[in-house]
Design a protein that fits this description.
Layout lengths: L5 H31 L4 H13 L1 E2 L1 H8 L3 H13 L3 E6 L2 E9 L1 H21 L5 H26 L13
Antiparallel strand pairs: 1-3, 2-3
Helix pairs in contact: 1-2, 2-5, 3-4
């Protein structure tokens, strides 16, 4: 049974508020970095999704991005024109295409990641390394625990969560 004391509720509410604020700032910062790299924020998200999956169909990317396939299709066309992704016929279904990152696409993601990393380093420049490491660990734990908690709300079991050894 979970502890729902007022102090836990207050602290949890503060975490929720700070995560919401961080999410808003992150989206804004992501848009600024994308623009500095000559892209739109959604295009950068699509490139990162492709980087994680290597090669896939537009429909699969749309599912992953939680958008209609027509939205991804337009982004794919624009990114293909920029030379950041490549398209080839799916050998298992000649009507479908597989898309993947090009070398230029990987280079663009390296540039985007470098800019984000510089900002993160700068924002924590006065923090000791131990505090930064603890934050990374805490965020990883929160990510795992929240995936499980939200999965319970929907009745699903998250694929990327496993019980951690507490001993």
């Amino acid at each position: 049974m979970s502890d729902s004391s007022p102090s836990r509720l207050d602290a949890s509410s503060r975490v929720l508020e700070e995560l919401s604020a961080l999410g808003r700032r992150s989206r804004g910062s992501g848009a600024l970095v994308a623009q500095a790299c000559g892209l739109q924020g959604a295009q950068v998200q699509l490139l990162f999704a492709l980087w994680r999956t290597e090669e896939c169909r537009v429909a699969s990317l749309a599912t992953h991005q939680l958008v209609d396939p027509s939205v991804v299709s337009r982004q794919v066309t624009a990114l293909e024109k920029l030379g950041l992704i490549a398209r080839r016929t799916d050998p298992d279904d000649g009507r479908a295409s597989l898309i993947s990152l090009t070398e230029a696409g990987r280079d663009k993601l390296t540039e985007v990641r470098r800019m984000h990393l510089e900002a993160v380093i700068d924002s924590m420049q006065d923090w000791p390394v131990e505090r930064i490491s603890r934050l990374a660990d805490d965020l990883a734990d929160l990510g795992t625990a929240s995936a499980a908690a939200y999965a319970k709300l929907s009745g699903a079991v998250p694929a990327d969560t496993e019980p951690k050894d507490q001993g």
